[in-house]
């Protein structure tokens, strides 16, 4: 199993403390990184409440441009 999990509706799982990386897809905008502070789906599935590095929080249903990095990494 890979340490980094690309998005897959059927298998994306996360835990509180994991990092969410969302790749930028607009010119001039970089990637967004944040910490998953709450998992609202069953058994680790989305949606996730994420606190980004700029301090903002949002409820996220990650798309194909998102990667979950385990907290122990």
Question: Topology, please?
Answer:
Blueprint (H helix, E strand, L loop, with lengths): L4 E2 L12 E4 L9 E8 L8 E5 L4 E4 L5 E4 L4
Antiparallel strand pairs: 1-6, 2-3, 2-6, 3-4, 4-5
What percent strand?
35-45%
Q: Low-confidence parts lasting 5 or more residues at pLDDT below 50?
A: none
Give the termini distance in whole angstroms: 14 Å
In the CATH hierarchy, the architecture is Roll
Shape: globular
Could you state the order of secondary-structure elements as H and E? EEEEEE
CATH superfamily: Domain of unknown function DUF1918
Q: How many β-strands, per DSSP?
A: 6
User: Rg to the nearest angstrom?
Assistant: 11 Å
- What is the third-level CATH name, the topology? SH3 type barrels
What count of domains describes the coordinates? 1
Mean model confidence by pLDDT: 86
